[in-house]
Amino acid sequence: MTMSPSVPDPDRPPPARLALDRWTWREIAHLLVNLPMAIAGFVYALLVIAVGAGLSVTVIGLPVLVAGLRGARVLGRVERGRARSLLGVRIEEPSPLPRGRQEGGVFPWLWSGLKDPVGWRSLLYAFIRLPWGVLTFTVTLVSLIVLWPVLPFIARGLTAADRAMVRGLLPPSDELERRIAELESDRGVVVDTAAADLRRIERDLHDGAQARLVALAMGLGLAKEKLTDDPEAAARMVDEAHGEIKVALQELRDLARGIHPAVLTDRGLDAALSAIASRCTVPVNVSVDLPGRPTEAIEGIAYFTVSELLQNVSKHSGARSASVEVWRAADRLLIKVTDDGSGGARMGGGSGMAGLAERLGAVDGLFVLDSPVGGPTAVTAELPWRDRAPAGSRAS
Question: From 27, 168, 188, 253, which residue has the greatest number of CB atoms within 10 Å?
């Protein structure tokens, strides 16, 4: 029986062989380029340290050092690219530093640049590479002429040290640094979402209830004028105003439900999701299995996620039935909404899926869409579970 060859790991080159294959030539090229890159990096690091330290007693010393550290980031990016293309080492790029001066003046900008671990490690990498660059260039060049039969094994041994240096000194600073970048991005999503919600509420008030109340006030003013001259016309206008009041009250209730429904506050997700399902145009089976209630913020996000998904079911799916399942697994709140519609839903396309994914991502949630053409569609959402504080502790 023949066995298919295994797929090689892109971060791990194939075993060294006596033949000079393309991997060996790439490693040889990397080792020969080490010397000019090491000389350039050493000169740059020496200038930055000497000039920055020498001018540190003056006003321009620290800005020069910060500029040098930012330039060292560029050197690190070049070295990561060289290792990626010639050695197959794939390392995530660190998050960029803020451009220009930060809010609060020049001193926060200087401080963020001076404490940049990525810049300092890139500078250290450039500073210590000169003797290694001389050694690898010399050994590789001599081996090309004298020891070429065993050159693949020599190149593999030398580049193993290069790979270790790149992985040790040129990756992102740590998990905390990556997490800070994610939180900054999530904060922008939260701010944008809140601003969009405020604009929607303002638009709904202006175009709906406010316009209706203005018309109602005008109608009551006309009825007041006709009260003595034409009581029957005034009575008809008052009846019409009474009907307008009922419509305006319903619009205000709908608007309040869109902000935060009373049933969710009073009775929790089970009752609130059942109320949403009753307004859906297709039959919806709701199953909520929760040991308690999460915090108000998580509960609200879960509610509006299901609400948006069921609106998509009503408008776009062509489904005959749908289901909503909500349960807790360890420290996660899981939501699954399925329908037997035509499928083909995408994250874009005006369905609001991308906005839901961003909103969930802003609170460490996940959003997974599975909607093949022809159906069915299944959307799974995860939110972090945070226990609701007791009523007494909230009041205190």
Answer: 27
